[in-house]
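Researcher: We plan to redesign the surface later, but first we want a full-length starting point. Tokens attached.
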């Protein structure tokens, strides 16, 4: 998960509030006036938060409906950071599943499972991990808690998430549990599919006559 800058434009009160709860955010916080903001040449690693629309800025969150609950504000910020990190509008494809960041849901065919913000963050964080991700790493980078706190929070949430996925999709292998942490299983499935496909291609190329016979037999059985 990329680290980005969240720039609070003009709204000093919002900035002061977010500084107090910065451990809940997946970014660095900065405060700038509109004048200073427009002097920046590169907004690639920045997300701008303000109380009004700034026409010159694309990567912007406008918060104009006050009052707003703190947890709702944090949720809006983190979801928008996720969208920017993955360079997408609203969806991430993970194997056979689709995550909708707007509705925070995991879907496959006609089945849809609602996710919490932390569940969404956890799945997306594990998405690009080739090795098992430790509980301590998830605790620090997704749950934003220090390593000296209890790890049961993360383990309990992942356990519940795995159970939800199994109950909805009958899939208890999407998130694999190891002694040293957790890992998504979708890349392994794709790898096995590619190996199976390559073996079939090689068989056809090396044994064209046998391949035709096998195909005819398969069609007859159907």
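Model: Full-length starting sequence:
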């Amino acid at each position: 998960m990329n680290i980005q800058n969240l720039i609070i434009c003009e709204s000093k009160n919002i900035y002061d509030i977010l500084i107090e709860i910065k451990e809940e955010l997946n970014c660095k916080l900065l405060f700038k006036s509109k004048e200073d903001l427009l002097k920046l040449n590169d907004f690639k690693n920045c997300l701008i938060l303000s109380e009004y629309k700034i026409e010159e800025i694309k990567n912007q969150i406008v918060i104009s409906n006050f009052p707003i609950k703190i947890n709702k504000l944090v949720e809006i910020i983190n979801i928008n950071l996720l969208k920017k990190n993955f360079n997408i509008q609203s969806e991430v494809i993970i194997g056979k599943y689709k995550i909708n960041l707007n509705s925070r849901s995991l879907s496959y065919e006609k089945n849809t499972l609602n996710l919490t913000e932390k569940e969404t963050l956890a799945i997306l964080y594990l998405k690009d991990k080739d090795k098992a991700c430790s509980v301590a790493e998830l605790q620090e980078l997704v749950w934003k808690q220090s390593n000296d706190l209890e790890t049961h929070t993360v383990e309990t949430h992942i356990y519940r998430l795995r159970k939800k996925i199994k109950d909805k999709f009958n899939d208890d292998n999407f998130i694999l549990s190891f002694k040293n942490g957790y890992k998504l299983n979708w890349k392994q499935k794709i790898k096995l599919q590619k190996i199976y496909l390559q073996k079939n291609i090689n068989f056809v190329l090396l044994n064209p006559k046998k391949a035709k016979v096998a195909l005819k037999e398969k069609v007859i059985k159907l």
